[in-house]
Specification:
- The chain is α+β, with helices and mostly antiparallel strands.
- The protein is 37% helix and 24% strand.
- The chain is built from eleven helices and 16 strands.
- A six-stranded mixed β-sheet has the order 8-16-15-11-9-10. It has a five-stranded mixed β-sheet with strand order 5-6-7-2-14, with helices on both faces. A three-stranded antiparallel β-sheet has the order 1-4-3.
- Helix 7 packs across helix 10 (323-332).
- The longest helix has 20 residues, at 182-201.
- The protein starts with a helix and ends with a helix.
- 43% of the residues are buried.
Length: 419
């Protein structure tokens, strides 16, 4: 039996940490992938998670916001120090708050939204972990705030905790501490070590066999990051009660239909989606504790949603298998797939996220088109009282008319399943 990728990482990490004059903390499998990708291709941009909020003009005090962000970051190791590669090993180097808060001039960009997009495209490869950028059109009644994090520092659970803490710290206007205390650092280490133990346990022969069967015929169409992108948006009625459990498999089928239409491949495509959370008993430390699962999109539609669900539930039985191990299983089974994703799907439960409130004013979340993508096709859904669905695509690769037709097909599949 081959050694697991997780075990090999832990051996390298312990060696690097033992020789370091600065405390080095271990990283989850997802965090390591983000760092390895940007080190192997230094001209690529960092993976970031941005949220955009509109506030009435004059609401945001940027200096106060910066103090609040530093105060919050100082409690969380993932928002302090810096992600680094030491002797080829991805780690988190302990340190003080890694935060930037600033107003962005708009004159050279033609508006607040383009100015924020340009600033986020220019995200430094080595940090900071958290940026809060404010921009405003000269005559607009609102100003825009971008709250953006290095993806290695956050997942959906982290976003909710961060927004709640930022609201409270802005209200109190508290001074920041120099960095995390010993308990916070110990909690982060414990959470990551429990995650790594779960990843190693989920990489055994049964998981390898499962993913080899599921993904051994993936063709891969040359997926990858996209810089020039377009976006389409639609709101549908939200599912209620027990019907909410059908939303994600319905989205898998719908996004699969859009991927088939755009890629026009002869074999199964790789549709990636984040899944998971902190292991049972782990401290609620900020960071990225998600795994990327892969759903094989067949060249023809599934007979019905029940057939897709049966296969998806089997996949969830092996949801802890690290992505790198999944790629290895697929290639061992004969697939030429490189691990690049042909499409991405994310679903956020908006009931879990508080509002960002600054100076007693709740920000209105907005969505900016034109952001870079990690795949040539990406669908993001937000499920609250309604279901907001956004499709973004690589506009250098797919014509707008094709993307619009694919989106209409996606919505038709969703409406049929959720009716």
């Amino acid at each position: 039996m081959h050694a697991s990728i997780t075990a090999a990482y832990l051996a390298r990490y312990r060696s690097a940490a033992a020789d370091s004059p600065v405390e080095l903390l271990p990283l989850t499998g997802a965090q390591r992938r983000f760092l390895i990708t940007r080190r192997l291709a230094p001209l690529t941009r960092s993976d970031i998670v941005p949220l955009f909020f509109a506030f009435p003009r004059g609401t945001v005090d940027a200096a106060r916001l910066g103090r609040a962000a530093a105060a919050v970051a100082a409690r969380h190791p993932a928002l302090c120090g810096g992600f680094a590669t030491v002797r080829g090993t991805p780690v988190l180097r302990a340190g003080g708050p890694s935060v930037e808060a600033a107003r962005i001039p708009v004159a050279d960009h033609g508006g607040a939204a383009p100015a924020l997009r340009a600033a986020l495209l220019d995200w430094p490869l080595d940090g900071p972990a958290l940026r809060l950028l404010v921009a405003q059109d000269p005559d607009a009644p609102e100003e825009l705030l971008a709250l953006a994090l290095d993806h290695a520092a956050c997942d959906e659970q982290s976003l909710g905790a961060l927004i709640g803490e930022l609201t409270a710290a802005y209200e109190r206007d508290e001074p920041p501490a120099p960095g995390p205390d010993r308990q916070a650092t110990a909690d982060f280490r414990e959470a990551v070590e429990l995650q790594l133990a779960a990843e190693e346990a989920a990489a055994g022969p049964a998981a390898q066999a499962h993913w080899g069967r599921r993904l051994g015929t993936l063709v891969g169409t040359g997926g990858g990051a996209a810089t020039a992108t377009g976006m389409l948006t639609e709101r549908l009625p939200g599912a209620q009660g027990a019907a909410r459990s059908a939303v994600f498999p319905a989205l898998l089928d719908a996004v699969g239909a859009a991927a088939r239409r755009l890629h026009r491949a002869d074999g199964p495509l790789a549709l990636g989606y984040p899944w998971g959370g902190r292991p049972p008993g782990a401290p609620a430390a900020l960071g990225c504790f998600l795994n990327t699962l892969v759903h094989p999109v067949p060249p023809r539609p599934a007979a019905d949603l029940e057939e897709l669900c049966d296969a998806w539930w089997d996949d969830l039985d092996h949801a802890g298998t690290p992505f790198d191990e999944v790629v290895r299983a697929a290639r061992t089974a004969g697939s030429p797939w490189s691990g690049a994703l042909d499409a991405m799907l994310t679903l956020e439960d908006m009931r879990r996220r508080p509002s960002l409130v600054l100076g007693g004013v709740a920000g209105r979340e907005v969505h900016l088109a034109g952001r870079p993508l990690a795949a040539p096709l990406a669908v993001a859904a937000e499920h609250g009282q309604d279901l907001l669905v956004r499709l973004a695509w690589d506009s250098d690769r797919f014509p707008a008319a094709d993307a619009e037709a694919a989106f209409e097909g996606l919505l038709a599949v969703l409406r049929r399943h959720l009716a």
